[in-house]
Amino acid sequence: MSDIVAQTAPRRRRLRLAPLIPAAAAAGAVAVALLLVAATGRPVGIAIAAFWDGIAGSAFAFGASFDRAITLAFVGLGFILAGRAGLTNVGGEGQLAVGGIAATALALHGAGDLPRMLAPALPLVGGAMAGAVWGGVAGILKVRRGTNEVISTLLLSFVALQLVYWCVQSTQLLRKPQTSDSTLPESLDVPDITQLPLLFPDTGSPLHIGLFLVLIAAAAVAVVLTHSTLGLRLRAVGLNALAARRAGINDRGIVVLALTLAGALAGLAGAIMIVGEQYNLKTDFTSGYGFDGIVVGLLARGSVGGVLVFATLLGFLRSGGISMEITAGVPAAAVLICQGLIVITIAGSAILGDRARGSA
Amino acid sequence: MMTAADIGTFSGATLRLAMPLALAATGEMVSERAGVLNMSLDGMMLTAAFAGALGSWATGQPLIGLACGLLAALVLALWQAAMSVTLRANQLVVGIGFNILALGATTFLYREIFGAASRDLIPGFARWPVPSLAELPVLGPALFQQTALGYAGLALIALTWLVLAQTGFGLSVRAVGEDPRGAEKAGIDVRRIRYYGVLYAGAMAGLAGCFLSIADIDTFTEGMTNGAGYLALAAVIFGGWKGWRTFLACLLFGSATALQFLLPDLGVNVPVAALLLLPYLLALFAVAGLVGRIRPPSALTLPYVPGR
């Protein structure tokens, strides 16, 4: 009885407040960042101008901002897909990394001889498969050994980052042939034919067809989540795995599948980073996109539209931050501070919803 | 051939690399026994490493640096406790948020204060060889030439086991993590004990961070923990939430990292990168291999609402 009362009355308040929280958190975090900039003694106006230039100051900046958003959106989509099954995939960074390794290897060995239509596709498929394996391993560990996916996906990320380092350090793997002592530890450039076509090559914008790929992926995830039996099963397992099993759902299979798909999306993003933007493999080429993708997924609260919005926002934030560092000398880490504050605030304000439901 | 000197170097490196993990993991074990997971361990270590280096660099006194490091980690821990215990935030998510914040804040301040590529050496703790023990063959120089922070850390770890296992306070901590409702009925303030747990994890992570920056390599680099906090979390799981087993897990991870100094001396040619990923891979196997046979504290990550 008391449960029913607790559920009905304050719930309306929760519904009204919920969408406001990310916006309020973001606004507060940006305010803190501006204060930080002011505290460094640099003119805030110049910093803001540099920030804006980095986002949309030129065709190049605008395109690069969207390229960043594409990567973040893929990772975020994977995060909410796994999240629907009650899983927290924090292994985006490692899944990006193995996707990038596989894409580089395939682009350098094999894909270059394929026709133009297929040449970029092979690294993309390979990247997605590598990411799928990296995510799937965490899924298998969870159902077989009961290993919490948060700790396993994190550790797998560190393994993957060291694998990238290994690949670019060893000439037997992907390091380009050493012609002198100053040869950098990075791979050869992938052949032109394997590179993703640019959407506006004449304008100098680096925006590539990954934009369409991410929109297709977003539509697919939206359909799966809302209009498919798989979506229902994911949700059922997420709400109550035991009840789902009683209802005849293979809950363990769903857990593995959810993490595999999340890994595949991030792996694909890693491949796109290589054949779409960077064109070769370098140590730390993932530079935190996998972790930022988690933030996107958290902010989106399970909504595909939310992922696209917040990926764009964070992609722009990153571009602006980099430009602010180069032009105005303000460390781009200010952007990280913003993101951290946003995550903490949103996690801390979840109580507004919980309290209304009257249970912990 | 492995010589006595090799063994000495290897065990010295093992202990040196295991120390920060063991400090952080021991504090985290206490917090987890009380039911609170600090995913933010890495961020607390990094924050303390920076604040410790800053304090030591500014004053020339490693001891003041240590105080700064501890204070910074405690502030973060208090904030984390307010989020996890009082506001009942998801402990995984809020911890990740703190890690992002710590990486951002330390990088930002480091660049502002030290400049982007500072190679400044930070005044660190001096080594204190234990008379006569330090001259023991093979292991003497490795084990008995620690800094003051090293000895104090080892003592604190042992003291923690003792308090957790043998005292009434330790019993309260364990009760709060296993059966908070029962603990409350027995008159224990569940949330207060959990605050203590998180603050203790913060203090130990603070020591661990300071160990990195002012008692080992005597410098700060951006993101210098490099996931050590996550290794410490894995060590707690691998150690089955038991003190000495957690410590052994840290020694194991430390020795895996120390192999990169031993193997080249033995003429074994293994890529450095392969050795760098070994501790993480080992941690993964450890976590995957043992969970199921050991049981985490029943109320781990579950927030508690008093009086319901």
Summarize this structure briefly:
The complex is a heterodimer of chains A (360) and B (308). Chain A has 360 residues and is mostly helical.
CATH top level label of chain B: Mainly Alpha
Strand percentage of chain B: under 5%
Shape of chain A: globular
Strand content of chain A: under 5%
Q: Please state the average pLDDT score of chain A.
A: 88
Number of strands of chain A: 0
Number of separate helices of chain B: 12
The helix/strand class of chain A is: mainly alpha
| Structure summary, number of beta strands of chain B | 0
Q: Give the biggest beta sheet of chain A.
A: none
What would you call the structural class of chain B?
Answer: mainly alpha
Task: Indicate the radius of gyration of chain B in whole angstroms.
Answer: 19 Å
Task: List SSEs of chain B in N-to-C order.
Answer: HHHHHHHHHHHH
Distance between the terminal alpha carbons of chain A, to the nearest Å? 18 Å
Describe the structure.
The complex is a heterodimer of chains A (360) and B (308). Chain A has 360 residues and is an all-alpha fold. Chain A has a domain at 67-302. Helix content of chain A is 72%, strand content 0%. In chain A, helix 2 runs antiparallel to helix 16, helix 5 (59-84) crosses helix 10 and helix 6 (92-108) crosses helix 12 (251-278). The longest helix of chain A has 28 residues, at 251-278. The two termini of chain A are 18 Å apart. Mean pLDDT of chain A is 88; it is low at 1-14 and 355-360. Chain B has 308 residues and is mainly α. Chain B has a single domain, classed as Orthogonal Bundle (ABC transporter involved in vitamin B12 uptake, BtuC). In chain B, 70% of the residues lie in helices and 0% in strands. Chain B has 12 helices and no strands. The longest helix of chain B has 30 residues, at 4-33. Chain B is globular. At the A-B interface, helix 8, helix 13 and helix 15 of A face helix 4, helix 10 and helix 12 of B.
